[in-house]
Design goal:
- The protein is of the alpha/beta class.
- The protein has a six-stranded mixed sheet with strand order 13-14-15-17-20-19, with helices on both faces.
- The chain is built from 17 helices and 20 strands.
- Helix content is 44%, strand content 21%.
Length: 453
């Protein structure tokens, strides 16, 4: 890999791949390969893993600019020398460090932090447009249909801004500047990440014709060194507590914990689920991110409360026969006399329907695969298996008609459906009233129904 001024990184063969090798490689990147160093620094700050579609945000370089490496080129070069690799999980690609000497957090943590960041971004968007940081209807958030790009560089959120210091005039017409924002809720923002973010902002502002840019970096905590670096460069360094207050900031931290502890803590304290959901749905758009993310925890807590047994939620397994992977939303071991209940959860907007294709895929593909995973090489007899597909909405008429034509049981397991009406009836058996309240408040009532009521 070539560095600036055609410099090369030299090493002895027996040094390759050691911790010292990668440390010296980092040093070389910082001295003579800023694009590589910045990418590595920002990826380290995120725990060493990020969804591949968000990698350009971490790379922080223009998509197409002369004499600048694009995010795609940076990725290909770092992958070619075994710094980066890609992994597939549940139909999505992730980029992570390949050397074991670099940090590499679990994919479960990556997904949980992404959900928390998505909720926070919706709150930041609402705050920023209310005070006029950007044009009210022109905000673009990562993952939207439109790309969140300014000056050829991808950000977590962007918006044209008519704030006075950013506006210029051309022939009497106002020309907006831009508000850009990145977010990282993984850990404390340190000096290295702050310097890398400054470089990203400098690259964005470099072209002579680009309009003025106001950058903001959001995190839970900044180190004193990071704050000094960012503020000295005129960058807004904002904590969630400063933006939303302590209650919302703590709720986002708790959300990550709940999404990564396999439901054990949630099942033990369903009131906590309700508190977190009630807090985070105060953020406009928060309900849409939370409804699907927490449905399996709510359902898991409910079945354990009603039936007892040993609960696991969000379990990921690999089939030893085929190598295929699958997530088991809810698994309740009820004892040999009652067997094992396995639930696939389909969270919907209140009143929405599960399609026939969804039911077919569950019946024909997911159930046989998960049954094979759970029974291959098992110790002892756990009893019969019961697979059910649960939704807070309804099944389409064609889905119900198709399911009625299928066999309801096979050797070793049986199958069933439960819609919102059945779920509401089942919840009446719960001893803990907060479970019923959570379902009623977040899964059975739409905002329109609340207004009418």
């Amino acid at each position: 890999m070539r560095f600036e001024k055609n410099a090369r990184f030299m090493y002895l063969v027996d040094q390759y791949g050691t911790s010292k090798f990668w440390q010296r490689f980092d040093d070389a990147c910082r001295r003579a390969g800023k694009s590589y160093w910045s990418t590595i620094a920002l990826l380290k700050a995120r725990g060493g893993v990020i969804a591949q579609d968000f990698f350009p945000i971490v790379a922080g370089t223009p998509q197409a600019r002369q004499r600048q490496l694009s995010p795609d080129r940076i990725f290909e070069r770092l992958r070619a020398i075994n710094v980066l690799e890609t992994v597939e999980d549940d139909g999505r690609s992730y980029v992570r460090f390949h050397p074991l000497s670099y940090p590499r957090q679990s994919l479960a943590m990556v997904r949980a932090e992404e959900i928390a960041e998505n909720i926070a971004l919706q709150g930041i968007k609402d705050w920023a447009r209310r005070i006029g940081f950007g044009s009210y209807g022109k905000f673009v958030v990562r993952g939207d249909n439109a790309p969140s790009i300014v000056s050829g560089i991808q950000w977590s959120m962007t918006a044209p801004s008519y704030m006075r210091p950013l506006v210029s005039f051309d022939g009497g017409a106002a020309k907006p500047g831009f508000f850009v924002c990145d977010i990282n809720l993984h850990d404390v923002i340190g000096e290295e990440e702050a310097l890398a973010f400054v470089r990203k902002c400098d690259l964005a502002a470099a072209p002579k014709k680009v309009a003025p840019i106001m950058p903001m970096l959001v995190a839970h905590v900044f180190s004193a060194e990071a704050l000094s670096v960012l503020r000295s460069k005129g960058i807004l360094a904002v904590t969630l507590q400063n933006l939303f207050g302590e209650e919302l900031s703590d709720a986002l931290r708790e959300l990550v914990v709940m999404l990564t502890d396999l439901g054990a803590r949630a099942a033990a304290n369903p009131e906590h689920i309700r508190k977190v959901m009630n807090t985070l749905t105060k953020i406009e758009g928060g309900a849409e991110n939370l409804r699907g993310a927490l449905f399996e925890l709510v359902v898991g807590s409910l079945v354990k409360d009603v039936e007892g047994g040993y609960l696991v939620t969000g379990e990921r397994r690999t089939d030893l026969h085929t190598g295929r992977k699958a997530e088991i939303d809810v698994r309740l071991d009820r004892g040999e006399d009652k067997g094992v209940l396995v639930i696939e959860c389909k969270a919907k907007k209140p009143g929405a329907r599960v399609s026939e294709s969804d039911v077919k895929r569950w019946y024909e593909d997911r159930v046989p695969l998960i049954y094979s995973m759970l029974t291959t090489g098992r110790d002892g007899d756990l009893g019969a298996y019961r697979f059910e597909l649960w939704t807070n909405g309804y099944f389409t008429d064609s889905a119900k008609a198709w399911f009625k034509r299928q066999k309801p049981a096979f050797d070793g397991y049986s199958l069933g459906l439960r819609d919102g009406t059945g779920l509401k009836a089942y919840a009446q058996s719960a001893r803990n009233p907060s479970l019923r309240d959570t379902l009623n408040e977040h899964y059975f009532r739409s905002p329109v129904m609340k207004v009418i009521a």
